[in-house]
């Protein structure tokens, strides 16, 4: 259990060190976090097995938070084949990294006048691979666990509170938001 706690402390420390400024270098943070994940991939898989086997559905676990500058560090558990609806991050910057398993992240551009969504790209993340985004209210995302059998785990670092993000689904024939803003639910805290 000591190596598990040490690794979580390392990931938390890297995230908090890089986010001590208002506009962090997300590429540098991704490289350093990715290096730590690659170095201890087998330990992560073994030690985070409890989160993988919970079978409580999609969950967010708080790893760290700070008020000045505001930052949230989370570990997310993705059930097999789980996909989020299209959502934004309330204009926050963020970094998402696979810890165990593989994820697909779809990026959308949202037209400011009509709210129409257009697919901008797809990113596939394996352990230690990161995807980051700057503060932009016109961006939206959809994430999916690529495995049909195994729970995936990912690390998320956001510059601020995710209380006001929009969650929606694509309406036919035009892609528009269909749901009001909603708050992220945290399943608990991870110690480390």
The gyration radius over C-alpha positions equals 16 Å
Q: What is the CATH class?
A: Mainly Beta
* Straight-line N-to-C gap: 10 Å
Helical region count? 4
Q: Tell me the domain tally.
A: 1
What is the CATH topology? Jelly Rolls
Provide mean pLDDT, rounded.
83
Helical content (DSSP H or I, runs of 4+): 10-25%
CATH homologous superfamily designation: Jelly Rolls
Low-confidence stretches: 169-174
Main sheet makeup: 6 strands, mixed
Global geometry: globular
Tally of strands: 11
Order of helices and strands: HHHHEEEEEEEEEEE
The CATH architecture classification is Sandwich
Please identify the structural class as seen in this structure: alpha+beta
Q: Output the strand order for the largest sheet.
A: 7-4-9-2-1-11
Strand content: 25-35%
């Amino acid at each position: 259990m000591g190596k598990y706690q040490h690794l979580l402390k390392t990931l938390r420390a890297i995230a908090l060190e890089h986010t001590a400024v208002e506009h962090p270098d997300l590429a540098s943070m991704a490289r350093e976090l990715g290096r730590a994940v690659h170095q201890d991939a087998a330990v992560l898989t073994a030690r985070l097995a409890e989160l993988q086997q919970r079978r409580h559905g999609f969950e967010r676990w708080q790893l760290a938070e700070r008020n000045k500058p505001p930052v949230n560090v989370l570990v997310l558990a993705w059930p097999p084949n789980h996909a989020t609806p299209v959502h934004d991050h309330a204009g926050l910057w963020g970094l998402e990294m696979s810890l165990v398993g593989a994820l697909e992240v779809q990026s959308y551009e949202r037209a400011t006048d009509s709210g129409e969504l257009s697919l901008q790209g797809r990113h596939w993340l394996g352990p230690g691979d990161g995807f980051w985004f700057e503060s932009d209210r016109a961006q939206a995302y959809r994430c999916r666990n690529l495995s049909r059998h195994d729970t995936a785990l990912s690390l998320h670092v956001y510059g601020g509170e995710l209380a006001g993000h929009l969650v929606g689904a694509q309406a036919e024939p035009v892609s528009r938001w269909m749901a009001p803003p909603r708050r992220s639910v945290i399943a608990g805290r991870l110690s480390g």
